[in-house]
Amino acid sequence: MPHLIANLQAIRNQIAQAEAQARRPAGSVQLIAVSKTFPADNIRTLYQHGQRHFGENYIQEWHDKTHQLADCPHIIWHIIGNVQSNKSRLVAEHAHWLHTLNSEKLARRLSNQRPAHLPDLQVLIEINISGDPAKHGIAPEELPALAQAIAPLPRLNLRGLMCVASHTDNSDQLRQQFTQMHSLLAQLRPHAPQADTLSMGMSSDMNLAIECGATMVRIGSAIFGKRDYPNAA
Ligand SMILES: *Cc1c(COP(=O)(O)O)cnc(C)c1O
User: Is 219 touching ligand 1 by the criterion CB < 6 Å?
Assistant: First the structure.
């Protein structure tokens, strides 16, 4: 799968360039390779080229892959899709990061279900930054109350915020949304002084997100190619 390696290298270069352009330190942006709908073999190929962080949306599909990838013990799994209550246990027991925390109820379940022998689950609160009612995440106004409820829970470490920006070419609109995320992160700090993470930017809007302070970008199609499974988001 030589295209995967070339795509990975191109994205790494693009991130390095965007960091330099934004006068941010090299390595300050973490690449999450979003592997939803793609087979475990593709993940293994990237793993063999040094990629460690992978993002998945569909809990059952992801859980199946964790079994197929037992030979890649250093993968760091990021759940970036909506988590139904009945799937929270798989996340609590097998994920490293959850980017889509959106309720106190889910947070309490995860806190109770996270095994004590594992490190804390690293969590991000998902913000519906576009205000699109079809999108997941909480409204910005709800952030202080949710942060206050989540921050004290054991076995969760509230690390920051995540968003999916509007699907648009309008860079002013995107910049406005990413900039607002950056100021919302500051609102999180009184509750979670350790919060340092902004997960924002996808294949189409990665450069702008990095310019506006993203510390994680979630890149799928630019690495793996077009998704054409029926359930592809
Ligand atoms: C699918 C997905 C991505 C990756 O999107 P691309 O446009 O393929 O880079 C990033 N974030 C979330 C939440 C996704 O669902």
Answer: yes
**181 Cβ inside 6 Å of ligand 1:** no
pLDDT digits (tens, 9 = 90+) for 17-47: 999 999 999 999 999 999 999 999 999 999 9
- pLDDT, tens digit, 9 for 90 and up, residues 114-137: 999 999 999 999 999 999 999 999
218 CA to middle of ligand 1, Å?
A: 6
Q: Which of 80, 162, 163 to mutate to test the pocket of ligand 1 (most atoms within 8 A of CB)?
A: 80
CA distance 41 to 135: 31
Question: CB within 8 A of 182, min separation 6: which ones?
Answer: 198, 212, 213
Is the model's pTM score more than 0.85?
A: yes
